[in-house]
Description:
Layout: E1 3-7, E2 10-12, E3 18-25, E4 34-39, E5 46-51, E6 57-59, E7 67-72, E8 77-82, E9 91-96, E10 104-108
Parallel strand pairs: 2-10
Antiparallel strand pairs: 1-3, 3-8, 4-5, 4-9, 5-6, 7-8, 9-10
Amino acid sequence: DVQLVESGGGLVQPGGSLRLSCSASGFAFGDNAMSWVRQAPGNECELVSTISSDRSTFYSQSVMGRFTISQDNAKNTLYLQMNSLKTEDTAVYYCATSIWGQGTQVTVS
């Protein structure tokens, strides 16, 4: 079965850092574009970052320069390094490809 499992969320103070991980299984991880999407309460989903199979990356304007997406194909794992966190980064963060994971809560307060 295709599965994505996120981890690494938590509570952090403004200016702090977190690294999210997404463990993938059931598909050719390195051949697929992978994304991080977030949703804050009352807000629409926001595409935060994408890494393509050729390793090209996209970042939303709101996180550019603070977040870094990466992947380890040997471990079938996607990462999101989040630095200089702001209160407005508070959201549930989802790992996504053709499916979404269950999400991990990030709270900046």
